[in-house]
Amino acid sequence: MGEDEIKPGATAVDISPNKDGGVLKEIICPSTGESPLPGDRVTVHYVGKLTDGSQFDSSRDRGEMFNFNLGKGEVIKGWDIGVATMKIGERSTLFIKSDYGYGPTGSPPRIPGGATLVFDVELFAFVGEDITKEKDGGVVKRVFVAGQGYETPNDGASVVCDVKGSCNSTVFDERSVEFELGEGRAINLPKGLELGLEKMKLEETAELTLGSDYGFGENGWSDKGIEPHSQLKYEVTLKSFEQSKESWQLDAGEKLTQAKLLKDKGTKFFKNGMYEIADSRYIKVIDFLEHEIALQGDEEVERKELLKAGRLNAALCKLKVGDFIGAKDLCTKVLEENTESAKAWFRRGESYYALNDWENAKADFAQTLVLESDNKAAKNKIALCEQEIKKYKKKEKKTFANMFDRFAAMDSKKEAEDLLREDPLKDISEWESSQTSVQPSTDVNSIAVGGDVSMNMDIDQAIREDKVNGSDQD
What we know:
This protein is of the alpha+beta class. The chain has helices spanning about 60, 75-85, 190-195, 250-270, 275-290, 295-320, 325-335, 340-355, 360-370, 375-420, 460-470, and strands at about 15, 25-30, 40-50, 55-60, 65-70, 90-95, 115-125, 130, 140-145, 160-165, 170-180, 205-210, 230-240, 445-450, 455-460. It has eleven helices and 15 strands. Strands 1, 2, 3, 4, 5, 6 and 7 form a seven-stranded antiparallel β-sheet that branches. A six-stranded antiparallel β-sheet has the order 8-9-12-13-10-11, with helices on one face. A two-stranded antiparallel ribbon has the order 14-15. Strand 1 (about 15) and strand 2 (about 25-30) form a beta hairpin. Helix 4 packs parallel to helix 6, helix 5 (about 275-290) runs antiparallel to helix 6 (about 295-320) and helix 6 packs antiparallel against helix 7 (about 325-335).
């Protein structure tokens, strides 16, 4: 070892899991509070050096903090181990041997194989993992106890878990539950909790922070004292689960059987006013049958009828929850395969009506009447469309009239301003000949001046007049 080699100090602690000296930590500036958990997104500054003191990387030199998800293998193993022990505001030096760094191959050209790395790391912040598809922060997960294996429950899986829900630090729901994933709202478990369970492993314990849209929303849960639009926290432990079979795991006949069961489930939830759960069951009917091509005869006829029912029922659910574009698209799918479906025309018409597209809505309701001439609902909807179209045209006419009035007023104002800016002498030009003709002088002492006034100025005459006038002066 050279004299200038960077070495761990006397206060360095072995934090490697096996206590093999692979990761040593020496605190430079201590801090207090919580440490980040696996899955948290952490924000740090760092300077990386080799033990000979040569620097190979620095976020500080770049002037940009570094972010990564802890425990996800996004950084070298020594970082995942070391940063997990730090607190916000703490600054520490991590001595990371190659087994926990870049191994025997290194990271050429800056890091040779087998190199021990020295990192000066400062932790600035950490937040839980946003597990929403839209990354809108609606469900943030923090892992308290890591789970086993790699599998996570899928939609339809049978799960057993312990849940403890709190709002403003007050526990409102604590129980053990068993249910099918996707149907939790039937037992007052919010959809954000189910989304969290889909990301959990066996025997994992996690904290889920749910925004209002992923909790009980605008309705709240009055029986438990949960106000509308409340943020919730759940501590969840996944005790066991049994996966639901995916579509690709089933043969054609099994898909048909499962689709019938799912349709019946959806209908049960719909009748109980649980439209979101019903919708999810009908969507699974579509997923199972939409691309199936192996059925023939009566089974193929049944597949088509079930698929159509799944789409129409899902469209009705979406109309109930306000997803009008989704409802429209499902009805269009039905009509692409069967233009004789009065329900598809009517429900698509309702979608268009809700989207304020009254012309298309009227056309779809009219098509409903072509198929069902005594459909009173379609007749009423056509009348409503005509009223809305009439109101819109009246409003449009008034808007245009007001717009033209404003344009006319603007034109009048502009004309008035133009008049004020006009030059009163604009029609007089000193270069144009006047009505009085000015003849050229043959006397070099006579100057002819032309313009709006014409005159001859004879210099000799002017001198004589000056002499006369001068005799009268003192």
